[in-house]
Write a structure and sequence with these properties.
mainly beta
């Protein structure tokens, strides 16, 4: 009797393994940013407009890369909602995405530290002259 249960048990375990969601790394699913311009600024309030940070602004380009206004490039990793600049001028900076079009800079402890970056363009990320349509647009987790 036990010999008959063993293959059935293996089949059930195999079915569970196949249907379980798989994450590439512990940080969450891998994503890419909406392609196009990301404008960074210090948030304003009711009395003061946001303060632009042009030296921190960048353009998200293919292959999990970004480009600064001066042409320098770097790469990033986006796991779950945490964006980490892994090379280039912004290397080491971390952001938490509030949604697909806004990221707030965080420190090593995950606390917000002021600057935010906002995707310039339409809410869907599809802009005339902006190659946003090819970037993970079907993902609504972020």
């Amino acid at each position: 009797m036990n010999r008959r249960l063993f293959p059935a048990s293996l089949a059930v375990i195999g079915a569970l393994v196949v249907t379980a969601p798989v994450e590439a790394v512990p940080g969450g699913p891998i994503h890419t940013l909406l392609r196009g311009r990301w404008i960074c600024e210090l948030p304003g309030d009711a009395e003061m407009q946001p303060t632009a940070l042009p030296d921190d602004s960048f353009r998200a380009i293919p292959d999990s890369s970004y480009q600064m206004a001066d042409g320098k490039r770097g790469t990033y990793a986006l796991f779950g909602r945490i964006l980490t600049m892994t090379s280039g001028p912004l290397k080491g900076r971390r952001y938490e995405l509030n949604n697909r079009a806004m990221a707030r800079q965080i420190d090593a402890a995950g606390e917000f530290i002021g600057p935010r970056c906002i995707h310039a363009g339409t809410p869907t990320g599809v802009d005339a002259g902006d190659d946003s349509s090819g970037s993970d647009s079907g993902n609504s987790d972020i």
